[in-house]
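Fill-in record for Glucosamine-6-phosphate deaminase.
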Amino acid sequence: MSMVDSFEKIPVRIYPDLKEGSKFAAREIADLIRSKQAAGQSCVLGLATGSTPRSMYAELVRMHKEENLSFRNVITFNLDEYYPIDNDALQSYNRFMHKHLFDHIDIDPKNIHIPNGETPKEKIKEHCLEYENMIDNAGGIDLQVLGIGNNGHIGFNEPGSSIHSRTRLVTLDTSTRIANSHEFANISEVPRLAVTMGISTILKAKRILLMAWGPAKTAVVQKSVEDNVTEQIPASLLQQHNDSLFILDEAAASDLTRFKSPWLTGDMEWTPKMIRKAVVNMALKVNKPLLSLTNIDYRDNGLSDLLVEVGDAYELNLQVYYMLRDSITGWPGGKPDLHLPNHPERTKPYPKRCVIFSPHPDDDIISMGGTFQRLHDQGHDVHVAYQTSGNIAVTDEFVTRFMDFAVGFEDMFGVDSKKSNQILETARQYLKSKRSNQIDTPEIRSVKGLIRRCEAKATCRYVGIKDENIHFQNLPFYETGTIEKKPMGEEDVKLTMELLRKIKPHQIYCAGDLADPHGTHKVCLDIIFESLRRIKEAGDDWIKDCWVWLYKGAWQEWDLSEIEMAIPMSPDQVMKKRFGIFIHQSQKDMVPFQGSDSREFWQRAEDRNSNTANLYAQLGLTKYAAMEAFVRWHF
Ligand code: F6R
């Protein structure tokens, strides 16, 4: 048994990203289908929905089309379905499965089984029993695919579900309803009930593959894999299955002891980064300032190796203290007249051309408003590139109010407003009969986009940015009118390369926040990375002197041990940032598709920034009111 095995009680495979992990899962399924085909047997699959398996289904569809993978011998049973829900409702899992898999493959429709969300209440028990019988009659599930909820649920078996549970009607946890609310117009429309296979139904499967991607799943993956088996974390019950496997991307795996505290799982090379991580995490855990850590603290926390290799606590404490001290600067563009050897940014050139990429029209001010202001005040040539229109996050009420205003404005000044009146009337009629999640007309979408553009412009003026430095990219991947976006396309990359080549920046800031529940930030980041890669490959000269800094979006902050540049803010600067965020009125009080955090954006930003400052202070560094944090990306 290796040291890793002694921590991890479920086998784990880790891939660089979800695409690679999904390909592996799809290959496992395809191999099973083919081997069953060769033996003349049917292959019974248990299937999941949600964002996790989408890429895997896309790969299976590709294999069907390009590699002759046939599904004629496949019988499927889906894990769960909302209740009640129409089978063809936009959010139903029935519709999801057809859209992502069944409509594109040669499966026999009578082999498809999904709990029926239209079953009358009095027939539900019977329906669930029948579902179990159908699984048994098919010979049991050969391979079960699972995702995992942030609270550890598998299927819709919420915390507390019994290990003996079978297919049944359950109530959804509030946390699950909030997590899934992004599929619905708002939380009140998320069903309160669901039909789900039970834990015992799942555990009876011959093989289980659980996939988890992204930082939102990090904590629950660690608990399920390394902590004790408990019904409070249903996925931990998979420790009792003899053929289950977790397929993870690097982000989802990052809390596992082998990554979080690799010194506990075997020999390791102590790089400065690793030393910083180990010492910072230990100081936070024992709640001591860095300079107060003792040899005994190091020994008690599994770091005696470090004492042997690097020196005693006094030396180590100082080394890490200086690293943190040097990450703090009030000069995000570098300090012009003074060369400081360990400063996070270089002094020259001064002034710098900087581009802030903002995935949505308010990410710049929410995530780095203080730094944005400093860059401008310190004389740099700051550009902002708004990557998407953000039109999906404007409510219907808000857009109607603005259209009313436009028509009233024209009336007031005697401008011929026939055309605007017509547009307003059509929009009103449409919105009156609009069903939840129905796509807006192109006119309504344009007006929603215009509202957000005006807000972004107003914020830039508030900071002091000139109009010609404001760039609205309206990247096409975003313009689906629905919460689900297209993947990155050629046009997105082309537009971004053009802009970069026009500005030739010395500094680029972009959102490295991959926990954005809508996935927009991830695509926006991929587009920038791909553009930079191509520009570098083409040999443009300016790129050699271009540094990229990643900020996190509204949902998360960098781990303290990772931060490479921390920009302090005074109480007045915090207030100035707050008012800058307020300018985005369409995003205040209530937004559609809020995600799992019900606080307003300014509250989240202030919490995060003061939390970072408090952590620095807790470690014995100067106490600021707030701090914005950045990590450098080397390409
Ligand atoms: C879906 C299901 C759920 C999801 C889980 C994760 O059929 O049973 O357990 O797997 O809620 O959802 P995503 O993948 O959207 O993060």
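KEY FINDING: The chain is about 40% helix and 15% strand.
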